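Recap from last week: sequence in, structure out.
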Amino acid sequence: MDISTDETEVPQFPISVVEQETGISKELLRMWERRYAFPVPGRDAAGNRLYSRAQIEQLHRINQLLAAGYRPGAVVGADAQKIDNLVAEIPAQHSAPHEDPAVLAEALNMLASDRPELLRSYMRRQLQQEGLPRFVLQVAAPLLQRVARARMMGEIKPYREGCLQELLMECLYVATSQLPGGETRLRVLLASFPGEGRTLELQMTRALLMGEGVDVLFIGSEPEVDDLIAAAEVCHVQVIHLAVSAASVNVQNRQLLHDLQRRMPAGVSLWLGGSGCQELGAAKDESCFVRLQDMLRAIREWV
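Predicted structure tokens:
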């Protein structure tokens, strides 16, 4: 029997059922309710929380986004249309980079055992075996996503996430320092919006670009528009690439983007990459890359 829209909105499921169906703990559900005003439950006669089928389905979609690497602040409490749009952007399993569950499990075990020296050696071996692009896409990125989700669920201490980030940053610095120099067909200025706090993600993008023979200019993760324009002109870059997360889609950054668009030097292209690039409202003639793989494809096709 079909369930009507009205029935899906009726609060009828206790918090224990929601926890069982979604895998989201009761404590986390209450925290999201306080912090993000979602999900806001109804109450039974005894004052116990009751949730609707629509809320449970929304939580399932939020789980998909968290597993894909989105931060809770960017998706919990967002309207249903935005959630649906972001879910639709998640690459299908067959098109996503292949991950080795055994490698990720081993790294997670080392992290949980508080043996950073073992994890450092393991990450370096993986980098040597896989090569830089595969290491970033198939080891570093999915590992960061799993650890971020575990920290959010209270399954891992925040200091361990910080430890992993620093170890990965160290690996990327070592790997990029060993790349051969020489003539390059493309120079990219890499940056993000103010408040992103995504230095590691930027360094992962930098490593991928350098692995493709791109000369990457990096003047800090969150430079001012004046500095971006000056560096692009003086250093003769062909592309300014801005990392845009879903969390950075706001009025202030829309204005910053408009200012940058208006002042772009002649002959310099503006690229936007990340989960929030399309929603931010870029001009149609600008390139938006939700996935790193799409950006790499554009780099390889650059003439």
